[in-house]
Amino acid sequence: MAASPTGPLHRLMADFGIATVLLAAVDVQGRLKGKEYDAAWLVDRLRSGRLAPEMCGYVLGTDLAMTPASSGPFSWASGFGDVGLLPDTKRARLLPWLPGTALVLAEPIGGGWPHPLGPGTVLNEQLHRLAGLGVVPAVGIETEFVLYEGTARDAAAAGWRGLRPAVWDNRDYALDQPPVVREFGRRLREVLTGADMPVEAVKGEGGAGQIEVTFPYGQALAACEQHVLFKHAAKTIADEAGLTASFMAAPSTGVGSGLHLHVSLHDFDGRTMLASDPADGTELSELGEQAVAGLLTVLPDTAPLWAPYVNSYKRLQPHSFAPARFTWGHDNRSCAVRLVGHGRSLRLEVRLPGADANPMLALAAVLAGVRHGVAAGLKPPPATRGDAYLNREALPVPQCLAEALAAFETSALAGELLDEPVVAHLARVARLDLDHHAAHVTDAELERGLTQA
Fold first, then answer.
1. Using CA of residue 442, residue 66, residue 397, residue 140, what is the dihedral sign?
2. What is the mean pLDDT of residues 127-149?
3. Between the N and C ends of the chain, which has fewer C-beta atoms within 10 Å?
4. What distance in Å separates the CA atoms of residue 73 and residue 365, rounded to the nearest whole number?
């Protein structure tokens, strides 16, 4: 029997000859941040208690470019002290896309407890509170991204201009992808399977060079952690192939990449709680209706968790297959919340998050909505039939990050469901992106105004 690529670190070292360990936490943007260690040295120091891993706390409070905040717990005002890391060496994982390397995820801690502003802690808090209502979610993630010719270094050297998608036309569901794209997909599936993260499906999407990857259902936090590792693998494999994998929500005008969260709800015995007929029903139970109502109530106030950047909102356009209004419907891809499946497989597909979202934070917003709907006994509006973009009775999605941030910061509901310190912290991080873009002139502004203004 083949050795398992997951398990205690010392066993992975023996079974796979691991020499290097990445000890990492997940930052606000959903990226791995940490240090690279010699495996034997790390195990020896951890066993003897001679190493208490730490990292600069600002990792939990910077923007995409690692710009620090000017206020808050991770800022110049705080002196940028360290946060402790609690490594889980029992859940180490082989990283086949980095030969001889394993990953150990670590939980940021403060005062001996999980740090309240760590993305995993934010998600775990919502899972714990939802469990208090007797509800356990299962989660499946599907994400889209775009492959470009040339490495990220090549793109940077060209000033991020003249980017060429690896596929030049719409290859949605196509099985005649160019050889470089086929090989990328084969290699990606190979390394993910080797890491015990097999994908459910890989397909071409509608945008030029766009790929969609779907993962099987699983436990909520594990699904999010695996998605973080998947992005790390996809970017590494792309770079090796002379490509760039971009997870921007709107990498070019008219192209949008989503992060769709498929959520089903179960009791502690694993029975579905969404379907009115658990055997083969497609209609929602009373609890399912409450969950939908909660999502439509809470997600408008928590947009920075599922659309965290200025660019995120350029994906949310009418007739783009991304939602433009807070609607729900049966197997309706024009809705923000799509009810799909039947019986035990009945699930809510939340189509609002973009590929740029941290899945832990986006899912935390979703579960907060479910919890609010169930606890308050809310009733949803009628399901949207047909074109949800034309449903003028439904609330439109925010048009920009500034609008979303204003609603988030002033929402009593967001503060109640997520806790005020979490809202304040995530708002500060989102404002870093807003401030960055406000100070820069874009190519689109030059094209429109250089000679005409």
1. positive
2. 97
3. N
4. 22
Position 280 pLDDT exceeds 90:
no
What residues have CB less than 8 Å from 218, skipping those under 6 apart? 138, 139, 140, 226
Give the burial string for 296-325 (b: 16+ CB within 10 Å, else e). Answer: bbbbbbbbbbbbbbbbbbbbbbeebebbbb
pLDDT band for position 1 (cuts 50, 70, 90): low
CA gap 38, 43 in Å, rounded:
9
Cβ atoms within 10 Å of 89's Cβ, excluding its own = 20
CA–CA distance, 447 with 453 (Å, rounded to integer)? 10
The domain locations on the chain are 6-115, 127-437
From the list 422, 428, 451, 443, the residue with the least C-alpha distance to 119 is 422
Listed residue (38, 46, 50) closest to 13, CA to CA: 38
Taking the CB of residue 452, how many other CB atoms lie within 10 A of it?
Answer: 6
Closest CA to 329 of 296, 353, 356: 296
| Mean pLDDT of all residues in 376-405 | 97
User: What are the pLDDT digits (tens) for 35-83?
Assistant: 999 999 999 999 998 888 999 999 999 999 999 888 888 888 888 889 9
CATH code for residues 127-437? 3.30.590.10
In the three-class reduction of DSSP (H, G, I as helix; E, B as strand; rest coil), residue 336 is classed as: coil
- Residue 178 is predicted with a pLDDT of 87
Q: Are strands 201-204 and 136-149 parallel, antiparallel or unpaired?
A: unpaired
Cα torsion angle, 115, 118, 122, 125, sign = negative
**pLDDT over threshold 80, residue 2:** no
Q: Which CATH number fits domain 6-115: 3.10.20.70, 3.10.300.10, 3.40.50.1370, 3.40.50.300?
A: 3.10.20.70
Mean pLDDT of the chain, nearest integer: 94
